[in-house]
Input
Amino acid sequence: MTRMKRWKHSIASQSLKKKWAISSGAVIFMSFAVMSIILYIALKGWLYQQEEQEVNRTMHDLTSFFESQGPYLTVQDIQSNKGLMTSIVDKDQTVRLLNSDGIELLQINNTSTFPAFDNIDLPDNGYSLDTDKSSSISAIGNIQLGEFIGYVQLEHPLKGFQSMMTYIITAMLMFSVCSLLLSGWIGYMLATYLLRPLQNLKSSMDDVAAHGFEKDLAIAYDAKDEVGELIAVYETMMRKLKSSFEQQQQFMADASHELRTPIQVVEGHLA
Output
């Protein structure tokens, strides 16, 4: 017997309540899993877009600030911009200012490492994002301060984004397991309730097989569904069988009574 046949035989040998519980649990679990996957993909895309927007806002603020200060920009000017500095620190970003040869001139909030300057695709104008890395989003843009031409580079870590996605997928897995167990239990209880009339029908059949027609055959079930129709057919059939059985018993009794007198007369003559 192949594995598929054994699997089918194992399912076929289970009770109807177990089949109902397993099938309903599987259907609900699969539905929940599909919806969870779709929701996870949608949330991941939306949250990642939020991270990109944070990088775009910071890069826009940086390039606007540097270029607005002109060629006389000093470190004190940068430090005095509390709003920009606080925003960079709060987002755990790292910023550095490079000359045209890629030599670092200034760094703000040293929390991340930058890729090698030679491996970066430099934009012709404005700034560009690098979203190929899973751990961070990198950005680099052109700036011009008077005669100075260089680059401002930003490294935006995705630790918060990754933690959020880990939390979401963990919660979804927990909810999936809970939904599987709950749906299986609900399916089993529902099957027990809905199949109770069939269990009563089976008990009635067992009583007829063991005791004949001595007990009442009525089964309390008033619903006009398929089970009710089955019970109605069964009760009609059993009433006909009971009537036929009683007629047969009456015939046998009458026949025995009618034959008893002639037999006694014959026995008297033989004696």
Observations:
- The longest strand covers residues 136-145.
